[in-house]
Design goal:
456 residues; globular; single chain; mainly alpha; 75% helix
Length: 456
């Protein structure tokens, strides 16, 4: 769940306007005219169109860098880094997020506007790859591996900021009635761009000597970073409401987690998501281990499984967006959660690698639905004036699952076997899906929202 996932600004100023996709004509209505009058303080109606353009092109830039970042772990291995050092690529972001998510959320909530923090944080993260590309020019290969991980450790700080501000900024761009429509297109663009970039980078890496090949692609990713920064900084959302000094400064860990009790809908969402994420993250390292060690899968089959899993995501976003328009979030949440339970279960029952391609495709479809509705539900279950702090709590529980579950999964796989460990991962996913249902996560007193974009 990269995720790139997330909430709407105070009072939802964009609620009275009609969002139009990039390039579609704006059809003026009475409600739009009223909204225009209300936004007379320097915000013309086409601010949303500019925001949409910025969000989508920002996603394009993120996709370019994401495609390059896929090869960072391979780069470390080829530099001669020990397994421990390679493992830090996954554990460091989770550890930093666990420690800093809540303090960062409190800090960001006091800021006048989230956009500068989002765009600058994104810029620092993405440009770090270009800096990593320069390291072998200055140091030996062994030293370069350690310095690369050191840079990665520092970058986890702005990455934590990005993960929190992403929810606030993206949720504010289109408002609650259009955010699913917008995010499905952003994530589709990001996915396609990432897939194309991965293919091109893989082609180039085989044709240039090491380490110059990796240096070139890392430094070239600077283009994607600049593209993302150039457009993300143009996003225009309302400023945060001022909060009292006491409200801004209060809250130790106990007070922070009191939000789980005082806001039951949010607490239920966090609890169910934490359990489900444990099963989600526990299975991630088990899949390739099972494919290779139990099914003797070749690189071709592993590549095909991953390609299919990523390739169907775009279809999934369009499909589930259409379903949520007619049936709402709750049905999609439950179908997607229970559907994703099948992936580790069916994988563990397979004695041949071929059917796993189909299972991976289904997982991609269900995963797209889960990403889409969790983003929307997270925005609708928190007080608009405290979005950053609440999302920081949710992010911290996600980081805990990300740090602990993969380690437990691989340990169990070695002790009891990879198939039984996958069964346990499926069980945790099932428990999370049941919690989504029994705790009525996503349910409101309102009827399903109909999202009707102004497409020709």
């Amino acid at each position: 769940m990269n995720h790139d996932r997330r909430i709407t600004p105070q009072k939802e100023e964009y609620n009275g306007t009609t969002w139009c996709p990039l390039g579609a004509p704006v059809q003026r209505t009475d409600s739009m005219a009223e909204a225009t009058a209300e936004r007379s303080a320097g915000q013309p109606i086409d601010v949303q169109q500019r925001n949409v353009r910025s969000v989508l092109i920002d996603g394009l830039g993120v996709g370019l860098v994401s495609g390059v970042s896929t090869f960072l772990s391979v780069y470390l291995v080829r530099l001669g880094a020990p397994p421990f050092l390679v493992g830090l690529l996954t554990s460091l972001p989770a550890l930093t997020g666990m420690l800093l998510a809540i303090p960062a959320g409190r800090f960001l909530q006091r800021q006048r506007n989230m956009v500068p923090w989002y765009s600058r944080g994104r810029f620092l993260v993405q440009c770090s790859y270009a800096l990593m590309g320069l390291i072998p020019f200055l140091f030996g290969l062994q030293e370069a591996a350690w310095i690369t991980v050191f840079i990665w450790a520092i970058v986890t700080i702005p990455q934590t900021v990005v993960n929190i501000t992403f929810t606030v900024v993206m949720g504010a761009v289109a408002g609650p009635t259009q955010r699913q429509y917008l995010m499905s297109r952003r994530w589709s663009i990001l996915g396609v761009t990432t897939a194309i970039t991965v293919a091109l980078v893989g082609f180039l890496l085989d044709r240039i000597i090491f380490p110059l090949n990796y240096q070139i692609i890392f430094m070239a990713s600077f283009v994607g970073g600049m593209l993302s920064y150039s457009f993300s900084r143009r996003i225009d959302i309302p400023n945060n409401p001022p909060i009292s000094d006491s409200g801004a400064q209060s809250g130790g860990l106990r007070e922070t987690f009191s939000v789980l009790r005082t806001t039951p809908s949010f607490g239920n969402f966090v609890l169910a998501s934490f359990v489900f994420n444990l099963g989600l993250m526990m299975a991630i390292p088990l899949f390739p281990l099972y494919w290779v060690r139990e099914l003797n899968a070749s690189d071709f089959w592993i590549g095909l499984i991953n390609t299919v899993n990523n390739g169907v995501v775009m279809i999934g976003y369009f499909f589930w967006t259409a379903v949520t328009r007619r049936r709402g979030n709750v049905l999609v949440l439950r179908l997607s959660a229970f559907g994703l339970t099948l992936y580790p279960l069916l994988t563990a029952l397979s004695s041949d690698v071929a059917p796993i391609v189909l299972f991976a495709a289904l997982a991609g479809i269900f995963g797209a639905g889960l990403n889409l509705v969790l983003f929307d539900i997270s925005l609708s279950t928190v007080p608009p004036e405290q979005i950053a702090s609440y999302i920081a709590v949710y992010q911290m529980t996600t980081y805990v699952a990300t740090l602990i579950a993969p380690l437990v999964g691989t340990l169990l796989g070695e002790q009891i076997g990879y198939a039984p460990a996958l069964f346990l991962a499926a069980g945790l996913r099932l428990a999370g899906a049941i919690l989504y249902t029994t705790l009525k996560v996503g349910e409101t007193s309102e009827p399903p929202r109909r999202v009707e974009p102004s497409e020709p």
